[in-house]
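User: What would this chain look like folded?
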Amino acid sequence: MYFRQADTAAEARTTSLNEELGQVEFIFSDKTGTLTQNVMVFRKCSINGHTYGDVYDEYDQKVEITEKIACVDFSFNPLCDRRFKFYDSTLLEAIKLEHHAVHEFFRLLALCHTVMPEEKSEGNLVYQAQSPDEGALVTAARNFGFVFKARTPESITLCEMGRAVTYKLLAILDFNNVRKRMSVIVRNPEGKIRLYCKGADTIIFERLDPSTEDLMSSTSEHLNEFAGEGLRTLALAYKDLDEDFFDIWMKKLLFASTVMENRDEQLAMLYEEIEQGMKLLGATAIEDKLQEGVPETIARLNLADIKIWVLTGDKLETAMNIGYSCNMLRDDMNEVFVISGNTLLEVQQQLRSANEHILTLSRVHGEKTDRSADDSLFEETIIAEYALVINGHSLAHALEPQLEHVLLELACLCKTVICCRVTPLQKAQVVELVKRHKRAVTLAIGDGANDVSMIKTAHIGVGISGQEGMQAVLSSDYSFAQFRYLQRLLLVHGRWSYFRMCNFLCYFFYKNFAFTLVHFWYGFFCGFSAQTVYDQWFITLFNIVYTSLPVLAMGLFDQDVDDQNSLRYPGLYKLGQQNLLFNKRQFFLCTLQGLGTSSLLFFIPYGAFSVMVKEDGSHFTDQQTFAVTIATSLVIVVSVQIGLDKHYWTAVNHLFIWGSLTIYFALLFAMQSDGMFGLLPGHFSFIGTARNSLSEASVWLVILLTSVVCVVPGLVVSFLRVNLFPTLTDKVRHLQQSRKKEGAYEQNLKRVRRTSSRRSAYAFSHQQGYGELITSGKNMRVGSLSSARSPVRTPHSPTWIENVFKSKNEVFCISDENPGAPESREKAETETHRLKNNSTQTQLDL
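Assistant: Here's the prediction, encoded as structure tokens.
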């Protein structure tokens, strides 16, 4: 689980949750940066009703963009980013022809943001952006001739087609997770005041002037086209402001920014007032590629009967597109329920309707279904596949006490659950809902600060070390660099840990019952006088020395199947979810086996000594010889038993088992020697017992008989069980032995783009924007700033300001590249069918 590109290895911050990794039933995952790379690329745009980004041949047919297609030549721009690639030359021609709408489009991208520029050398600009989306948009504007060069708290400097232009920055209307948009108000060199706004398309369209209805209709169609390729979209608009109106509004803003109570609410009302009646410029489309191996990982986890819920801040359409790309949503699903009610009553009606639809139309085993008997068993009887998609506004109502049970019942009946436009608090509430009402182990995985609450709420937290800092990683129990490593963490290491812990506990109880209950049988013959059957030193060293190392090796190294077969047959993971390897039944069987072994250990030597004689004709009448015989038989039996229970032998296992037996005999003869008795006669009373008793061949015959009789019944039961009633693990182990010479089985498939009519959408970070920080000027060098300060500034903590921009955890550097191979829906479907075929083959074998 080492990611070579980022030189990042997996890290475990706890050792107390390893076995729970093998029992996970619910995974709650973020989308951006967790399922996707969070590396944004500007692909297409719509400007004034025209789309740009596609390439057409001489027959006016759209051409698939490949490496053979020539990129647009940006050599006219000495400040361009050489890594930026765009293939539609008509957009560059429109720039050179000075189309007003096109120039305004890129001027907006160059002005409306909170990016910080850094010129490391002449012409070498590096942008530091709060989110990768902003970085991609500013870089696109830079390459098309509108270069963002510098900013101060009062101004923004651009290089427009080689000409330096400075705009006076009047106000920044910052982003938050309620507004879902940001705006800047600037004064251009001609003295005109203009507001530039960008945000989610549904938010922007609600605030447009009615005169742009036709343009809005055509732009909406283009957005649907972009959504077919899973692109993240963003709408752009502007508004010219009257000088008198702006002065009045600015005075209101100054007053609202200084009040002590309800400041945020008053500012939001003022922002809403000025962001009305805007004119639409167009829309952008950004590609956020899936991480490598995401579809295959989700396919394997689904086959392991792990339910995956995606909790994302993106729009519903974007989340659904990613769901289809990841194969979480499929066209062959029986139904995809979309919950988008605006009121509590609407949400309740939609949830109940979906629930009744499943209960009515699903093919359920049996004529009648008792829902109240066992919800988990009822969920397993649902044959049809359903998906649930719910937005954040509806989720807020669904999490109310009177509806949370209905939501949970419906979600558990669905194979896929996607919650979109959710806040960090709602993510934690969803996880807490499942923890509180379902007896299941939950795991949350995310990469950003907005995922921390979800990660801390779940039983197991996993952090992705990606582009959004280290907050999620530092709050997690386990961390790695790519989502695909989750399958190995759960299906291999988690299952092994659960398997080892269960075997460890079973063997531990068995050997201690066998050891302890011998005293119970002995009590009937010593009048329950509390006399011990063993030497006191044997009692002390039995668990510490004689049997500690073999069981430790089992808990550390044992494997029922290897890692490749653990991934090939995800159904093996279900044993942990159902807790089949250690439960009340297994504990009872361990007790029963230990009880039987203890009775055989006591009564076989007892019966043999009553009729046996020594070589000199005398009888075995001393208790010390009887104790040594039982103790030796016990150590041999438990050592042989753990050897039979092991599935994976290593040099360490051999060393610990045979070494423990060697240590036992060495200490036995040493502690019962004449020398030890001479040194401490009060502590080593079994003088010469080992030497005298183990020199008799009849004693060794009793030890051999006792060991064989104790071990053979369990060996016969295991043999009959494996051959007559084999489990899935037994079948896979048999196949593993027959496939030792087989090579790798996975194949790389070509990526195929998916077409869909679903809407994609731009997603903002859940964190508050940096507009207020920028206008304060406290993040910039003193020498580069004027003494004036923006009138909309509000007081901040200097420590917080310094930490924000100094911390690498919060700032995204555009100059960093992290290319990755995209994964397709077709690849995931092929992987799913292959895994299902392998599982079917396993069940048919033997």
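The chain has 31 helices and 23 strands. If you want, I can go into more detail on any region.
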